[in-house]
């Protein structure tokens, strides 16, 4: 029998497992998963966000804090709305255009708005990076669009054609991303806000090993300065280690193996010191992962990369 062939290399997002390093983080992640996958009335969601805020010494995710603010506003909880609004504008990923969203327009009618608006403008003025953000967004669109065809059934020839387009798109995006970083600096939250830093990260994960390794080092500095998403750093570190054929740290990387019978099975890329996996994941704000029953790939396995 021939050796298995590696046909897909993927970045996976996890559902929550059954254990974590601390019970507080386990509870936080369980509530977060519940509220993100169910359409609760605002009053119920508000109570859940209050619990999340209390059990982990303040909500550590910008997106969760934003949703908490929106929910407090919908429930007419004015004092909590005020507290959350002032908390959120102090994040480095804050963008002063945030309150232009229709669902948050009511904040502008509250008595604390002049003071909040002043602080918002000071902390979140990013107009000098508008072109940077626009180009990052356009690169993200091209990065994702050229990969959409991979979700359908393809012949070998069709797959090869799609991958040629993907490699060409990645090459163009990488070249432009390097130019943008040279011109504007690394795409931190402070420069380009949360959403556009995510665009840069999505493009960078498809870069060559040398650029990816450089990006990881810059991202470490940004996270240490509360200027980037810790979870994105975890995925990028694992991708970089995997590219160098080394064990990952956070359990974010799987590979798909197809054998001669054409049966595909997903296998976890090996993890360094598996016993400490969830402690490391919590440190970078990733949900706990239960590896029970997951097949783990062997690093010395003889496989062939097709793409």
How many beta strands in the DSSP annotation?
A: 3
The strand line-up of the biggest sheet is 1-2-3
Largest sheet: 3 strands, antiparallel
What does the radius of gyration come to?
21 Å
Q: What distance lies between the first and last C-alpha atoms, to the nearest angstrom?
A: 22 Å
Task: Tell me what portion of residues adopts beta-strand conformation.
Answer: 5-15%
Count of alpha/pi helices: 11
H-E order = EHHHHHHHHHHEEH
Structural class: mainly alpha
Flag low-confidence runs.
1-20, 302-307
Q: Level of helix content?
A: 40-55%
What global shape is seen? globular
Taking all residues together, what is the mean pLDDT?
Answer: 87
Architecture blueprint of SSEs:
Blueprint (H helix, E strand, L loop, with lengths): L4 E7 L11 H14 L5 H14 L6 H13 L3 H11 L24 H12 L5 H16 L10 H29 L4 H16 L4 H16 L5 H14 L9 E6 L5 E5 L8 H7 L24
Antiparallel strand pairs: 1-2, 2-3
Core attributes:
307 residues; mainly alpha; 3-stranded antiparallel sheet; 11 helices; disordered N terminus; disordered C terminus
What does this structure look like?
The chain has 307 residues and is mainly alpha-helical. Among the domains are: 23-125; 126-226. It is 53% helix and 6% strand. A 3-stranded antiparallel sheet has the order 1-2-3. Helix 6 packs antiparallel against helix 7 (156-184). The longest helix has 29 residues, at 156-184. Mean pLDDT is 87; it is low at 1-20 and 302-307.
């Amino acid at each position: 029998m021939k050796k298995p062939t590696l046909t897909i290399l993927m970045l996976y997002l996890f559902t929550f497992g059954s254990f974590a390093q601390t019970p507080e983080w386990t509870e936080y992640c369980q509530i977060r998963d519940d509220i993100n996958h169910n359409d609760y009335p605002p009053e119920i969601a508000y109570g859940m966000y209050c619990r999340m805020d209390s059990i982990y010494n303040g909500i550590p995710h910008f997106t969760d804090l934003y949703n908490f603010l929106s929910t407090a506003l919908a429930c007419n909880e004015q004092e909590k709305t005020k507290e959350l609004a002032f908390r959120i504008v102090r994040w480095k990923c804050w963008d002063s255009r945030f309150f232009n969203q229709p669902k948050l327009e009511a904040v502008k009618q509250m008595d604390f708005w002049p003071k909040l608006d002043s602080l918002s403008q000071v902390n979140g003025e990013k107009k000098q990076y508008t072109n940077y953000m626009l180009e990052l967004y356009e690169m993200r669109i091209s990065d994702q669009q050229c990969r959409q065809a991979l979700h359908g059934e393809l012949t070998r020839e069709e797959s090869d054609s799609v991958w040629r387009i993907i490699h060409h798109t990645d090459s163009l995006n990488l070249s432009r991303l390097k130019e943008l970083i040279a011109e504007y600096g690394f795409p931190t939250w402070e420069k380009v806000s949360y959403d556009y830093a995510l665009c840069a990260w999505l493009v960078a994960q498809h870069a060559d090993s040398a650029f990816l390794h450089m990006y990881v080092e810059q991202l470490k500095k940004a996270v240490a300065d509360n200027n980037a998403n810790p979870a994105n750093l975890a995925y990028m570190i694992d991708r970089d280690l995997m590219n160098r054929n080394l064990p990952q740290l956070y359990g974010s990387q799987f590979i798909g193996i197809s054998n001669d019978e054409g049966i595909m099975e997903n296998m976890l890329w090996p993890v360094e010191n598996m016993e400490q996996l969830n402690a490391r994941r919590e440190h970078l704000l990733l949900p706990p992962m239960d590896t029970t029953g997951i097949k783990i790939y062997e690093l010395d396995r003889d496989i062939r990369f097709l793409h």
